[in-house]
Known about the structure:
Elements: E1 9-10, E2 16-17, E3 21-27, E4 31-40, E5 43-53, E6 56-59, E7 62-65, H1 67-87, E8 92-98, E9 104-108, H2 129-135, H3 138-145, H4 154-158, E10 167-171, H5 172-181, E11 186-187, H6 188-191, E12 197-198, E13 203-204, H7 206-211, E14 222-223, E15 228-231, H8 234-240, E16 247-249, H9 255-261, E17 270-275, E18 278-285, H10 292-296, E19 300-303, E20 309-316, H11 319-330, H12 337-345, H13 367-377, H14 386-412, E21 418-422, H15 429-439, E22 443-445, H16 450-463, H17 470-479, E23 484-486
Parallel strand pairs: 3-8, 8-16, 11-14, 17-21, 21-22
Antiparallel strand pairs: 1-2, 3-4, 4-5, 6-7, 9-10, 12-13, 15-16, 17-18, 18-20, 19-20, 22-23
Amino acid sequence: MSAFASPPQRGAGGGVRTPGVFAAVDIGASSGRVMLGRVSGEGVELETVHRFPNGVVERDGGLRWDFDALYAEVLEGLRAAATVAAVQGERIASIGIDTWAVDYGLVDDAGKLVAQPFSYRDDRSRTAVAHVHGTLDPARLYQTTGLQFLQFNTIYQLATEQDLDGLHALLIPDLIAFLLTGVRGTEATNASTTGLFDAVAGEWATEFFTALGLRKDLFPPLIQPGEAYGDLLPDVAAAVGLPAETTVVAVGSHDTASAVAAVPAGNEAFAYISSGTWSLVGLELKHPVLTEASREANFTNERGVDGTIRYLRNVGGLWLLSECQRAWAGEGFQPELSALLAAAAALPADGPQINADDPGFIAPDNMPGRIRAAVRRAGADLGDDPAAITRCIMDSLAAGYARTITAAERLADRPVEVVHVVGGGSQNALLCQLTANATGKPVIAGPVEATALGNVLVQARAAGAATGGLPHLREIVAAGTTLRRYEPLVSVHEGYVP
């Protein structure tokens, strides 16, 4: 079956029109953007029409997202998308939204957001872990949800809430979709990150809601990638300059689900690393791995597009480096990233390492100091040279990737032939080469915009502009992406090209 289809669609005047272009709202923990995606036999062309910052703020006693500002930026991005499409004589066929996972907003019966959502980087949920585990045995939790233990998972956040009577929880992408359409739904890939989702049944684990004193209808019903939330509300459509019949389509709304959908893999057995603020490292499986060994290794089983299982672990990510850069900038040191990585690559390969996914690195501020302290606790010395700290981060991430992939192969009984790195980290030649060295496997880097590509392709398939399953969608990605291959080397210096 061809991966492309452009079925004619009848316009209002009885003519024929193509499915149009697709607007992808793609928001990460530190920035967001709205992009237009055009699907053809040459791949997907992405055009960024609006970029904006994102981040946590101290407000009302905790670290929260400035959601009102975030939503205003989404509207501004959709206005820009409408303008660009109109100038080029195009029609926006639909809108898809992906963001980070686990966080939620609470709305009342009238649909009003009652407070700015807490960020997973806030420490409040740590205090709820003992209560949840005293009510629900961790082994039972894992046997049902298959979810990696992270102290900020939604289940622990909800356990800190004092009074949820009359309130409803919407995960961040679902909250944006609700404000755009007035329709409440919970997209399944994101629902699977909550700790309240049955990994086998693909439904809410309602017995956990009951055990924790949560209403079974706290979250809206589940919807799947490719299904529609609904059309834009008339006032929203008017505000952004789009037709009221413009549909908001559920995509892999957990950004990693969209990114994995766009991994340009062929028939080889592959591991993936979605490398950005966090690194999500794992395999794509047909069935969850719910063994005690998997729980002890702290692997997660999250839903992917088309009912796949993203069997992975969260590993520390480039947040470590970006926070270091922010700290150094405050001290007046602002080198180009390329120069910093080149200086790091020139250092010996046997330097000190840290546990990059230690919870002690979750919060912001003074990251260089915390990394140096972690190295001292391990009995080594790092110093304060930014190049040495950068090399420590890169070595530590690559080593963490290698350990995670090796463990995933063993636990899932599935050998890996090649590692695909997508996202911002795919541009980091030093990290990609170190990953190939550490895993002993070829690394294929790209695309950078995997999340937006996965978002657009799920929309395109829903509109009939693409057909087939994930292999077909991945063919489209591969057709339009320049990929870079890194072979394992004895030393990072051998053949290294920054």
